[in-house]
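Appendix C: a fully annotated inverse folding record. The material below is reproduced so that readers can follow the format used throughout the book. The structure is listed first as tokens, followed by the designed sequence.
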């Protein structure tokens, strides 16, 4: 969704469009880094608790994105969105969930 809004975001923040791409990169790198943590959290706290927390984190981060006055705060908010997004995808095998290796 962000790709279609890049020109508008760049105009609002008075930066080149290419600078706005850091927000997409920050999100994708954060998701990739946090998926393993998400799996561990799911085993430790349960699917429902982690998923509900993920929705809360992602929603709050989305609000912060909307309120960001500059590119730096938008990028930091996207990092928080990435954390919430990763928590929505706990990737574990059933054997790992039961404690069997």
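Designed amino acids, in order:
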């Amino acid at each position: 969704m962000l790709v279609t809004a890049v020109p508008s975001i760049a105009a609002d923040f008075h930066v080149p469009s290419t600078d706005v791409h850091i927000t997409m990169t920050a999100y994708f790198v954060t998701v990739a880094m946090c998926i393993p943590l998400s799996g561990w959290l799911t085993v430790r706290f349960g699917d429902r608790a982690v998923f509900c927390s993920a929705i809360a984190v992602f929603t709050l981060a989305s609000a912060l994105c909307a309120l960001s006055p500059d590119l730096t705060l938008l990028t930091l908010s996207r990092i928080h969105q990435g954390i919430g997004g990763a928590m929505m995808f706990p990737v574990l095998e059933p054997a790992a969930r039961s404690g069997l290796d």
